[in-house]
Design goal:
By secondary structure, this protein is of the alpha+beta class. The protein is built from 10 helices and 18 strands. The strands form 4 sheets. Strands 7, 8, 9, 10, 11, 12, 15, 16, 17 and 18 form a 10-stranded mixed β-sheet that branches. The chain starts with 5 loop residues before the first strand and ends in a 5-residue tail after the last strand.
Length: 534
């Protein structure tokens, strides 16, 4: 028996394993056997992994079965562990190490040389000398112009003081103007000469950057070619073909899940159950919590895992909108000839989706109710309940959207958080952007993200939970969910959050309970509330 497999003792009964492998993309608590394997792994990793021993990381387990029906577990980590690709007791990466060693060390050294060349061109002696010359030349020219200006001012004062303006005065005035023009022309000529040299230097930098980028692309192509993608039937494919026509994303094939499935195929074992868990400090972008299970990512693993699992009996991946309770009718809280405010139930979309099965929504139900076109002014997530404003004509819709854009609409949400929050009030300002590798998740990014601000107050405290009021001052996607979960926010995800917290069977406990705004037609100040159902 291979030492890479940890065999269950005692062996599970046949009825303890599902007939089909659950989808790796399904959220929620893992199968008890996978949960047991994860618990044993985390116990062996110990708390040092939480204390910076390599930082936080995604780990995974794969329950496997051999030809004789014996059941065991494989383990893997995402990327590298403490700077190493190969760690005893964990599944190896998908790439061929012999093939990678053939080109990567030399290629890495070449990239380092090119990077050093770029740094030298940007900040080296030649670049500094050019900058110094430009500054010195500009200072000299300004000094010359200042001297000319002083002399000309004195000459002008003399002319103005003379009782009679003579031909000599006119000749001196023309001479002064000519001298000033020559000095300014010389300054422009000096600047132009330095600009030519600066452009030549910039061209050298640009050429070096492009050379490094081209070499990097070539090496990346070789890296992708070194990956071995083989499905359960033994069919072999290149990594590039899996993601075609797009190039594979960075880190493709290096997540724990594909490592596990690929290693099971190498060993002739049948994958039965897969689970991944985050262990260690959360990443700076947020969205990961130690000991929390997460489904496989959609960006990198979405195209790859189905290829690796081809030939096995695996559940279909969940689709958006699957598994939510049948939505009840949205309750009308306020209506007049211009607008409607409804209390949206959890599990109902705000607007129709692209697919036929996602046509049901607040918008479509109100059209059916009123027999007229209605326009949703703002949206709530499928998993969020609460107040929504819907306009009954285009002009009201435009006016309300402008009010939202000007932040003239006050919103209050209530939520139960999975954790105990320090303090009683505060403000969260964390910029957000979409996670390109795992849509629709949002991540914190101070450089490329859009500004997002939320204020909060604690309403109640319970064992391991905190009830809060949340006031979003911007309208970013998943803003409240990320601000609640992130360690620089409240550090406690909303209960039932399948993207940023733990899924324990409960709905997302987030409800838009209050709206206050000025009516765009009557001018009246409206304050509307709908208490949370939890």
């Amino acid at each position: 028996m291979t030492p890479d497999v940890r065999w269950f003792e005692p062996q599970p009964r046949a009825d303890e394993l599902p007939a089909r492998m659950p989808s790796p993309f399904a959220a929620g608590a893992p199968h008890p056997l996978a949960a047991r394997a994860i618990a044993e792994l985390l116990a062996e990793l110990g708390p040092e992994q939480l204390d910076g021993g390599g930082g936080g990381k995604m780990f995974g387990v794969l329950v496997v079965e051999d030809a004789a029906g014996r059941v065991g577990v494989l383990r893997a980590f995402s990327g590298m562990l403490r700077g190493r690709w190969f760690v005893e007791g964990f599944a190896p990466p998908l790439f061929d190490p012999v093939e990678r060693d053939r080109f990567w060390p030399a290629g890495e050294a070449e990239l380092a040389v090119l990077a050093a060349r770029i740094d030298e061109l940007r900040e080296g002696a030649a670049a500094r000398a050019l900058l110094d010359q430009a500054e010195a030349a500009e200072a000299q020219q300004l000094l010359i112009l200042a001297g000319i200006a002083t002399r000309h001012a004195a000459s002008r004062a003399d002319r103005h003081a003379a009782p009679v303006r003579t031909a000599a005065h006119d000749q001196q005035s023309r001479a002064d103007s000519a001298e000033r023009r020559r000095a300014e022309a010389e300054r422009r000529a000096v600047r132009a000469g330095l600009a030519v040299r600066a452009r030549a230097q910039a061209a050298l930098v640009e050429a070096a950057v492009e050379a490094r980028a081209a070499r990097s692309r070539a090496l990346l192509g070789q890296i992708f070619d070194s990956y071995v993608v083989v499905d359960a039937r033994g069919t072999r494919r290149s990594l590039a073909s899996v993601y075609a026509p797009e190039a594979p994303p960075g880190g493709a094939g290096d997540c724990a899940a594909p490592k596990l499935v690929a290693h099971a195929h190498r060993l002739g074992l049948r994958p039965r159950l897969l689970a991944e868990v985050w262990w260690g400090p959360p990443p700076a972008t947020g969205g990961r919590h130690a000991g929390t299970f997460y489904p496989a990512c959609r960006g990198k693993c979405g195209p790859l895992l189905p290829v690796l699992l081809a030939g096995l009996d695996v559940d279909d991946p969940p689709r958006f909108g699957d598994g939510v309770p049948a939505a009840v009718e949205p309750r009308v809280v306020f209506e007049d000839p211009w607008l409607v405010v409804v209390d949206k139930p959890v599990g109902l979309l705000s607007v129709p989706g692209r697919h036929a099965r996602l046509r049901d929504s607040v918008a479509t139900r109100l059209v059916a109710r009123y027999g007229e076109a209605t326009r949703v002014v703002h949206r709530l997530d499928l998993d969020t309940s609460g107040l929504m404003i819907v306009a009954r004509d285009a002009e009201t819709h435009a006016d309300l959207q402008r009010a939202f854009a000007r932040r003239e609409v006050a919103k209050r949400y209530v939520a139960w958080l999975d954790g105990e929050v320090a303090g009683d009030t505060g403000t969260i300002a964390l910029a957000l952007r979409g996670d390109l590798d795992d849509r629709p998740r949002q991540i914190v990014d101070a450089v490329h993200g859009k500004a997002a601000t939320t204020t909060w107050q604690v309403l109640a405290r319970g064992p391991g939970r905190t009830r809060v009021a949340l006031h979003p001052h911007t309208g970013r996607t998943h803003q409240l969910r990320v601000h609640a979960a992130h360690r620089l926010g409240l550090g406690a995800p909303i209960v039932g959050d399948r993207l940023y917290g733990r899924v324990d069977g409960a709905r997302l406990l987030l409800h838009a309970e209050a709206l206050a705004f000025r009516h765009p037609r009557t001018g009246a100040r409206l304050a509307i509330e709908a208490p949370a159902p939890f």
